[in-house]
Write a structure and sequence with these properties.
The protein is α/β, with parallel strands linked by helices. The chain has two domains: 6-17 and 82-216, Rossmann fold (3-Layer(aba) Sandwich); 19-80. The protein has ten helices and eight strands. Helix 1 (19-34) packs across helix 4, helix 3 packs across helix 4 (63-76) and helix 5 runs parallel beside helix 10 (206-216). The protein is globular. The mean pLDDT is 93.
């Protein structure tokens, strides 16, 4: 079986557990700006989508204000954020195998750079694609294709989408991988119903995440 040449990771819900902070801060923001009480599970549907898109989906016209308030509320609840167990060590070992690595995230560069937990992982992630780096965002394939382009240039050889696996936790991540022509591994840390997500692999621990690359290389 052909070994992957590039492993790309989503951040929130895949490498770092930001679900409670992200969803509860959105619930607070919606209450503040729209005056609506929204259940946690309903707000979860917007988890991992850029704030300007969420504002539009909710019918709130001032996407800039919506994003600012959500970010402020997110920071206020950031004490809930934790890396998933064993992820840092797994990334170190994956990097040591020689496989190129990258991240594709809906975070902007400021949110990426000022995350203390993520900062410890950056040395083991070769390429990053944040929301400012592409015109389109997940579920569109452009961010993942851009990451593949960055890795190809760095290696000096073309990497095909079939040589890439994307690790993510949402339907938007899956659609991004599918339309880019890459394999998809679903992060299932919380034991949620995968619904209509058609994953090639699924993992619920850092060991399982790492083993996917070993299995594919056999």
């Amino acid at each position: 079986m052909m070994m992957y040449k590039l492993a790309v990771f989503d951040i929130d819900g895949t490498l770092i557990d930001t679900e409670k902070t992200g969803v509860e801060s959105l619930v607070v923001t919606i209450k503040e700006l729209l005056g609506t009480d929204i259940p946690y599970e309903e707000a979860y549907k917007y988890f991992g989508i850029p704030s300007n898109k969420v504002a539009g989906l909710l019918g709130y016209e001032d996407s800039k204000l919506f994003g600012e308030r959500w970010e402020e509320n997110f920071i206020a609840l950031s004490h809930y954020i934790r890396p998933f167990p064993g992820v840092l060590e797994a990334l170190k070992r994956i990097k040591a195998t020689g496989i190129a690595t990258g991240v594709v995230t809906s975070r902007n560069k400021m949110e990426f750079d000022y995350d203390d937990h993520l900062r410890t992982m950056v040395p083991y992630l070769d390429h990053k694609v944040c929301s400012e780096d592409t015109v389109h965002h997940k579920p569109h394939p452009e961010p993942l294709l851009h990451c593949i382009s960055l890795a190809s240039k760095a290696l000096g050889t073309a990497i095909s989408p079939g040589e890439v696996i994307f690790f993510g936790d949402t339907g938007h991540d899956y659609a991004c991988a599918r339309d880019a022509g890459c394999d998809f591994a679903l992060a299932d840390w919380k034991g949620r119903d995968a619904g209509e997500i058609l994953f090639r692999y699924k993992f619920s621990s850092a060991e399982e995440m790492e083993s996917i690359l070993a299995i594919h290389g056999e």
